[in-house]
Amino acid sequence: MVVGWSQPGFGCWLSGVDINTQQSFEALNQRAVAVVVDPIQSVKGKVVSDAFRLINPQTMMLGQEPRQTTSNLGHLNKPSIQALIHGLNRHYYSIAINYRKNELEEKMLLNLYKKKWTHELTLQRFDSHSKTNEQTVWVAIGTFEIRTETRVLLFIIGCRGTYGDPWVVQEMLNLAIKYNKAVQEEDELPPEKLAIANVGKQDAKKHLEEHVSNLMSSNIIQTLGTMLDTVVL
Q1: Exposure of 5 by Cβ count < 10 A (0-12 exposed, 13-18 middle, 19+ buried)?
Q2: Any alpha helices (H) in 77-171, and if so which ranges?
Q3: Which of 38, 85, 138, 158 is the most exposed place for a label (fewest CB within 10 A)?
């Protein structure tokens, strides 16, 4: 008996609700297995999936191994940190699984997310591209007391509107403020508190760098594509 879950983008693990559901299925059938598939993380030619069974609490109290070795074939998959946090090897354990694909299924998986060489030369609509730029970045640079390097960063990526309008930056506003706050905390907090201060928090600097990289690459591709079309056509 197989019970299936789909967790798009979250990886393969069982939540508390999933554990309770699986517990009821295992009460009905002792051979029930929970199979989790992540369609978002599944990439070309590879399916991200895992199988789990619950661990009897009494077995854990006695210190016994819940898994039984039936053959030398197969290996245990290396668990992800998300699965360990959500109770892997404490409330449930993973089972090594394999699956067979026919020729049509292999061809389908290999063509998943497949791009043609012309894909990178495809131009966006200029109005939507301009709107994307404006949504990515807006803020009046002089409004916030941001460190020099951040002001320069926003100056480079900023988009100038009509004369007298502020420099636009939309999505990076919160990131810039968080980065400025993080830099100030680095100067105020002692080293021992600083080591754990940012645990579990968003790294504003890395997200800013990612936004800048995406913005620059999209604008470079759009500009080169426009010049190419002008010359060719």
Answers
A1: middle
A2: 81-85, 103-110, 126-136, 148-157
A3: 85
**Residue closest to 15 by CA, chosen among 25, 3, 7:** 7
Do 133 and 159 meet the contact criterion of CB atoms below 8 Å apart? yes
Strand 2-6 and strand 92-95: pairing? unpaired
Task: Provide CB contacts within 8 A for 89, sequence distance 6+.
Answer: 55, 79
What is the C-alpha to C-alpha distance for residues 33 and 138, in angstroms, rounded to an integer?
50
Q: What is the chain's length?
A: 233
pLDDT averages per 10-residue partition of the chain, 233 residues: 76 88 89 87 77 82 65 66 84 84 81 71 77 61 44 49 41 71 77 70 74 79 80 74
- Whole-angstrom CA distances from 2 to 25, 53, 76, 140 are 9, 11, 19, 56
Question: Among 92, 77, 96, 97, which Cα is nearest to 14's?
Answer: 92
